[in-house]
Amino acid sequence: MVIQPILTRRSIRSFKDTPVSKEQLKALLEAAMLSPSACNTRPWRFIAITCRETLNKLADAHNWAKMLYKAPAAIVMLALPQTQETVQDGIARGYFPQDLGAATENILIQAEAMGLSTCWCGVYPKEPLIKAVREALELNENDLPFNIIAIGERDESPNARGIYDEAKVTWIE
Q1: Positive or negative CA dihedral for 108, 70, 11, 57?
Q2: CA 13 to CA 42: how far, in whole Å?
């Protein structure tokens, strides 16, 4: 059942020194690319990283991504908002954050289902972080870093933080 990886998923900030294979990363990327997007624009590009030097550069660049010093892999998601500009007279314009959020969640849930753990570190819309990640990865100005997802085998077991809260629901019957 799909609910199990949702229930057990945690943001992990401490990883074991166990490699993540290219095949495992490809499975995560496939899950991301199967997510919905406005008018099927798929406004994303991905950078899969297992190079220790690059992971360390990203950890240096992002104050809240220090777990990358130990994570064996990461995926950086790049937003392509320009893909939505002319679709159906711009009806898809501006939905790239929701689309990349859905793709991100697919990665997080797929990783958990595969026995891997993750930590989602936001980049967009913070200009200093966007600039720092661009510099760390030597990206051009047209590349818009959206987030970094640290990936690996967990070396900690934090408690769940999310709960179902009936007070946040309005029922219309």
Answers
A1: negative
A2: 29
